Amino acid sequence: MPDQIQQSYEFRAEIQQLLHILVHSLYTDREIFLRELISNASDALSRVQFEMLTNQDVLDIDAELAVHIAFDPDAKTLTVSDSGIGMTQAEMIENLGTIAHSGAAAFLKQLTQEKRPLTEVIGRFGVGFYAAFMVADRIQVISRSYRPDAEAAQWSSTGDNQYTVGLAARRSRGTDVILHLKEDAVEFLTAWRLEQIIKKHSDFVAFPIYLQDKVANQRTPLWRRAPREVSAEEYDTFYQQLTLDFEKPLLHLHYVADAPVDIHAVLFVPRTREKGMLGLRKDFGLKLYSSHVLIQEYNKDLLPNHFRFVEGVLDSEDIPLNVSRETVQNNRLLAQIQKALTGRLVKELASLATEKPDDYRIFWQEFGGFIKEGVATDLVGKDSLLPLLRFHSTQAAAADAWVSLPAYVERMPSEQKEIYYILGEDLTSVQRSPHLDPLKQRNIEVLTLVETVDSFMMVALREFDGKPLKNVDSADLDLPPLPEKADEPAREPVADANFNRLVSRFVEILGDRVQEVRASKALSTSPCRLVSPEGAMNQEMQRVYKLLDQPFDAPKKVLELNRSHPLVQDLAFLAAADRQPDLVRLEIEQLYESALLQEGIHPNPAAMVAGIQELLARAAHATRRAETDAD
To answer: Distance between CA atoms of 192 and 212, rounded to whole angstroms?
Structure first.
């Protein structure tokens, strides 16, 4: 080593806390330290590999891109070496010392608050290098950058609150991580144990891993093998190594094609949505290779944005190697690849729904919102997504009961010409909507949409299988005639004169907040409802404006009254007799605001509280007076 004083630095506070946890760790599954070091080495190799595509001024440009692992039982040292991008002194301080972007604070927060095992989250926040302190009481890192004029550097720490950095003697490009193992970690000084760990955690790393000069991992990437040669266990293992998701994927797709474009791809649908946020990969997008060379870690153009939850890799020999990261996204071949991948993925999801409905139910509950987003935003590909949609309905209202559009159409009565749906805030309130009255009378199924994305989706989804989708809030529903019920006595509606007087009072009190007040031809059990007048902004767009927090006033709608409802009858009596005008005014206001609330478009629901409390006070007072008079 050159004659230079090693300069000491202090770790940041959260790194010191992290190191304390790791140095004193008693976890038995300490083998993950090797997975993390190999992963870091693989990243360094990928970075220099890409650098060499456009830059010939790279130190040791002909050196093999590989990871080498060696151990010395007598010295109790384990060394992980790579011929990757390397580091300078400044880069060592940035990457191994201050860790300004490591996410250590987030790691510690999850570890302490969620009480999750250390081995489940160690690699998920960029702090994987420090896992080596679980088995080592001192770590040395000797590295030389790929830049020919850069000097080699050394980093060293015993896991306390300090580390040292200085010059080092290393002639070749790359990095050596030298672990001085603890007494209780000598199990990692045997070839058999190390090979076992490599096979378990790093078998599908894209570069050869040499253990004492013998390759210990698979030389052919899994995605370059024929699908019939890969077992289900190998797919699961590859997925777990790719993502650090400890659950098995819900679905995998291995796709190989040579025309019209060369494709070798393996895609995975995770079992839960959270793994994409907390897993090893820090962004969404597929790993893109060109002839085995990693071009992009997170390519967002290989699948439409609504499939961003999909993990995987794609390798294509048709994509040129001598491209920059910026021009990859403009390569015309990506459009062909995206079309092919998307088509196969949609086909696999459809097969999952048919062959494994329980698994598809899990998929829909986790990722259904993404499919709805695709229908709303992908004007070209939305039709292929429609059979994947699932809905609650008035005939499938349970939390785990779903209906597809094809299934809905299949059980439509022959006289039904439209697919009916209703928008709302939650399933319970939707089931009580007055708009369902005429549909319930006719035993017609209605799709119930209660998620935020539904309003956006229904703006784009206007028909399916040649049948228009119709919101039940429309005043012009084309419904089949009512079935006759001879045993059900009809309730007498309010007389015309009294009803007309009541309508006048509604118009007088509500003013220009409603476009019209009229009798309903559809309501049976509800006192009133709001319907959109012909030519007005539909409910979907009204909800979109409200959700986007755009300037929004409650739209002028038509208020329809049920002339046979007891509440409307009582109000008509009071209005015609000109009795208790204040109570009539209060009840009319509350009926209107309740209707707005049921529509999900009330601009300020909290404003209803005062009126409701006044009605309660009046009811309590009237009851008390009646009881007193009776005594």
So the answer is: 11
